[in-house]
C-alpha cells in the first residue's frame, strides 16, 4: 500500500501571491483614494483647471517606464508660489525642530523657493548617495506595492502640487510632501538601509504582517520623532513637510511613547488632523536596530531568487 501522503506544508507567501523579482514587476497603477478623481472634500474639487492639470500629470506618471528619464514638469506660477510658501515656512522651523540627519541631508539638495525641484534631478542625487531612485506615481500607491518598491531601492513619488487655496493642507501625498518630507532622509545612508530593510520584509509579509509593517512605517518614516539631547526632533516626513504638524510636535501637546516594534500599534488615521501621539526613538541607531530585528523575523518567507535580487544579506 502507498504510504500516506505527507500533509501539505502551509502555502508560503510566494505560492499564493506573485512576489516581484524586479522593480519592473512592482505595479505602480494601484492608486488608493483620489488619483485624478478628486472627492468632494478635496480642496481642488470645484476647480476644473486644477483637475485637468492633475489628469495630465497623472498620465505622465502612468506612461513612465523604468530606465527612462522622469518627464520634467513646467510648474505653473501658482504652483511655484505654493511650493515657495511652504518651503519658506518650514525652513524657519527646521533648525530647531528637525533631526540632525535631516538637516545634513537637506543641505545636499539646495532647494529654492522660486523653483519646484524635478524628480529626475533628485533621483540622480539620491542614486549617488544611497542608490535610491525615484519612480513617478499617480497618487497614494497601495501600501504593499509602495513598500515592495523600497526593496528595490525605489521611492514612488507623486509629481502634482496640492491645491493653491490651501498651501498648508493636502489630504494625500503631493510633491511638497514627497520632496521635502521623504527625499532628504532617503539620502542618509543609515536611513536608506533601514527603509530598504522594511521593503525587503514586505516581500515576505503575509496580510497580517503587512498591516503591522505599514503601521511601523507610519509611526517612524511618516511620523517618527527622535531624541537629541533629551529634546524630540522630527524625522518623519509627515511632520517635516507640514508647518502645522511640525509646530504641533514642537509645542509638546502630543503624547510621546516609546516604540516597541513587536507590540501592537494604534490604528492609522489619514483624516483626523494632527497626530495625538508620536513614537519616539532614543536614537536612530537604537530605533533602526529594533526595526531591522522585526524585519529579519520575516525574511525566511522570501524566495531565494528574490532574496538575491534585492541583495539581502543573509541573517
Ligand atoms: N504613495 N505616492 C505615495 N507616497 C507615499 O509616501 C506613500 C504611498 N503609499 C503608501 C505610503 N506612502 C505609506 O505611508 C504606507 O502606507 C506604506
Ligand atoms: Fe509619505
Describe how the helices and strands are arranged.
Blueprint: H1 13-16, E1 31-32, H2 48-63, H3 77-97, H4 100-106, H5 119-130, E2 133-136, E3 140-141, H6 143-151, E4 154-157, H7 175-186, H8 189-204, H9 207-222, E5 225-228, E6 231-234, H10 237-240, H11 243-250, E7 255-258, E8 277-281, H12 284-296, H13 304-309
Parallel strand pairs: 2-4, 5-8, 7-8
Antiparallel strand pairs: 1-3, 5-6
Helix pairs in contact: 3-11, 4-7, 5-7, 6-8, 8-9, 8-12
Bound molecules: 7,8-dihydrobiopterin and fe (iii) ion (FE).
Describe what is shown at a glance.
The protein is α/β, with parallel strands linked by helices.
Low-confidence stretches: none
General form: globular
Cα(first) to Cα(last) distance is 43 Å
Biggest sheet overview? 4 strands, mixed
Question: What do the pLDDT scores average to?
Answer: 91
Give me the count of strands.
8
Would you mind describing this structure in some detail?
There is one protein chain. By secondary structure, the protein is an alpha/beta fold. Helix content is 46%, strand content 9%. The protein has helices spanning 13-16, 48-63, 77-97, 100-106, 119-130, 143-151, 175-186, 189-204, 207-222, 237-240, 243-250, 284-296, 304-309, and strands at residues 31-32, 133-136, 140-141, 154-157, 225-228, 231-234, 255-258, 277-281. The strands form 3 sheets. Strands 6-5-8-7 form a 4-stranded mixed β-sheet. It has a two-stranded antiparallel sheet with strand order 1-3. A two-stranded parallel ribbon has the order 2-4. A hairpin with a 2-residue loop joins strand 5 and strand 6 (231-234). The longest helix has 21 residues, at 77-97. The mean pLDDT is 91. The chain binds 7,8-dihydrobiopterin (HBI) and fe (iii) ion. Fe (iii) ion is lined by residues 173, 177, 182, 222, 237. Residues 173, 177, 182, 222, 237 line the site of fe (iii) ion.
Amino acid at each position: 500500500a502507498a504510504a500516506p501522503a505527507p500533509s501539505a506544508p502551509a502555502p508560503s507567501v510566494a505560492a499564493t501571491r506573485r512576489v516581484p523579482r524586479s522593480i519592473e514587476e512592482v505595479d505602480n497603477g494601484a492608486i488608493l483614494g483620489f488619483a485624478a478623481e478628486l472627492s468632494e472634500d478635496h480642496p481642488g474639487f470645484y476647480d476644473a483647471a486644477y483637475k485637468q492639470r492633475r489628469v495630465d500629470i497623472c498620465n505622465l506618471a502612468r506612461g513612465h517606464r523604468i530606465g527612462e528619464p522622469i518627464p520634467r514638469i513646467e510648474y505653473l506660477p501658482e504652483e511655484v508660489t505654493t511650493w515657495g510658501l511652504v518651503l519658506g515656512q518650514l525652513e524657519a522651523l527646521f533648525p530647531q525642530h528637525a533631526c540632525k540627519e535631516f538637516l545634513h541631508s537637506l543641505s545636499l539638495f539646495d532647494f529654492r523657493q522660486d523653483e519646484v525641484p524635478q524628480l529626475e534631478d533628485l533621483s540622480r542625487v539620491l542614486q549617488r548617495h544611497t542608490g535610491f531612485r525615484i519612480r513617478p506615481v499617480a497618487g497614494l500607491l497601495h501600501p504593499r506595492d509602495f513598500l515592495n518598491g523600497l526593496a528595490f531601492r525605489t521611492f514612488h513619488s507623486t509629481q502634482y502640487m496640492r491645491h493653491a487655496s490651501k498651501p498648508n493642507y493636502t489630504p494625500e501625498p503631493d510633491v511638497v510632501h514627497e520632496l521635502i518630507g521623504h527625499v532628504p532622509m532617503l539620502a542618509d545612508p543609515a536611513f536608506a538601509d533601514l527603509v530598504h530593510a522594511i521593503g525587503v520584509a514586505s516581500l515576505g509579509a503575509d496580510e497580517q504582517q503587512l498591516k503591522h509593517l505599514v503601521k511601523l512605517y507610519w509611526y517612524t518614516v511618516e511620523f517618527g520623532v527622535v531624541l537629541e539631547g533629551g529634546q524630540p526632533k522630527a524625522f518623519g516626513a509627515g511632520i517635516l513637510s507640514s508647518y502645522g504638524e511640525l509646530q504641533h510636535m514642537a509645542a509638546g501637546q502630543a503624547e510621546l511613547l516609546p516604540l516597541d516594534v513587536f507590540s501592537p500599534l494604534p490604528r492609522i488615521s489619514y483624516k483626523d488632523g494632527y497626530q495625538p501621539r508620536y513614537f519616539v526613538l532614543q536614537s536612530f541607531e537604537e530605533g533602526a536596530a529594533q526595526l531591522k530585528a522585526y524585519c529579519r523575523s520575516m525574511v525566511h518567507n522570501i524566495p531565494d531568487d528574490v532574496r538575491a535580487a534585492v541583495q539581502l544579506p543573509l541573517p
